[in-house]
Amino acid sequence: MAAEVVIKDNIMVPGMKCEHCVMNVRKALSMVSGVKGAEVDLDLKKVEVTFDPAKVQLGKLIEAIEKAGYEAFPG
Ligand SMILES: [Cu+2]
Fold this sequence. Notes:
Elements: E1 7-12, H1 19-30, E2 35-41, E3 46-51, H2 58-67, E4 73-74
Antiparallel strand pairs: 1-3, 1-4, 2-3
Helix pairs in contact: 1-2
Residues 17-18, 20-21 line the site of copper (II) ion.
């Protein structure tokens, strides 16, 4: 079995105001295939996403956050 490759990348989500927003963003990301985890820093409005680059790219992750109703861009 080949070792799984994952990378981490940051996405800025300035519209996150509270824990509810954090939950929405985490949930949106968790539903994307290839996402392994998401650490949200509410103070910095930053999301560090861990994902498998063979399965999903940053643009797709940003799109998922936008669909949840939040502006998002690479951080
Ligand atoms: Cu909120």
